[in-house]
Amino acid sequence: MLEKQSREKEQLIRSSQRDLEDLRNTNLSLTDRLEAMSRNSSSPSMGHTSLMNEMDLSDQDASRPSLPEDLLELDEDIECDEPCLSPLSDAENLKQLRQEVIESTSQLRSLVEQMRHQRRNSLTSISTNSSDEFTVNNLKPGVLKETAQELKGLIRQLLRREAKGQCSACGRSAPEDKIQMEQEIHKALEALDKLNIELADKTEKLKNKTDEVDQLQQQIMLKDAQSKAVEEERDNLKYDLSNTHLAKDELIKKAWDMRDNAVARKNACEIELAKTRIDVMQVNSQLMEAIQQKVELSQQLEQWQVDMQQLLDDQMRRKLDRLENSGVFAAKALNGSDSDSSSSTKNSPKKTFKIFALLSHLRRSPATSSTATASGNPAGGNSNSA
């Protein structure tokens, strides 16, 4: 059903595309006609006078043979053009020539009717066949000549109108026909836009239908799988039904065997399930132990960091105490040296140099201790990270 609808939608889209192409061709033809009419309206008609002169000369030809003479000349032309064919009888030739004259006359009459209709109405196409049927009974000696004269008169009138700058088909002037052409082009463009919109709508609908078809195909595949399962079950039932000729004891034994197999499979599944549960419990306990160990390790790491910090603080405190004691000793030594120098007549330069060196060493020692503590902290951080 959906495939049929999709095919119908595709046919509609193709028909819309064909209509679109037809409208485009119509638009191009109307544009060409409009350009041709604009060129004809701007340029003078050069070939009208010569054609009218030729028609006048053909009217003045009084020595034109009558209809029977035309038929004889036509018969001679046929005999000359087809020398290889077998000669026909006079009756057959006359019948064939009459048929050709009838066809020519009917075509001329239809052309005259068409030109009259175009002169009365606008640019609308009509059938080339005449409304009244022309037969052998209507064939008279002057019919073909009258039809030709009437056609010449209509052509002469049309040529005069074209020479005056009017439309050759409907008798209107070139600007009016140009306006009508522009209106027709505008209508064709509007129809083209409508067809484009309809084509877009049809394309969207076709896309939606395609999605629906895909969904239904998936459902069909699922139904096929279900039907295969049902067919398998049916085959099993058929097999069981075909084995009904066995003895009752054998059937009971077979049923018992099937039941035993089912119970065995059930027990095996339960055992496997119990094993799986035990494994899950073991994995959970191992996971809890791992989490507990991780917590203990984190606590030990924190305690180790605290101990390291205390150790570093104790080392810094001892260094500061040693530096303070060394500073007091140096001050006492400096005071003793000053008293010795006052008693002597002249200061020794070596002793003063040693004193200044000791003072500079004492000044540098706090800086080295601070750098040592700074270097000790990154080491502690690295050990913590380890």
Automatic annotation (TrEMBL):
Residues 1-24 have a biased composition (Basic and acidic residues). Residues 1-51, 364-386 are annotated as: Disordered. This is Bicaudal D-related-like protein. Residues 365-386 have a biased composition (Low complexity). The keyword Transport does not apply. Residues 178-233, 280-314 form a coiled coil. Residues 38-51 have a biased composition (Polar residues). Keywords: Coiled coil. It comes from Armadillidium nasatum. Signal peptide: none annotated.
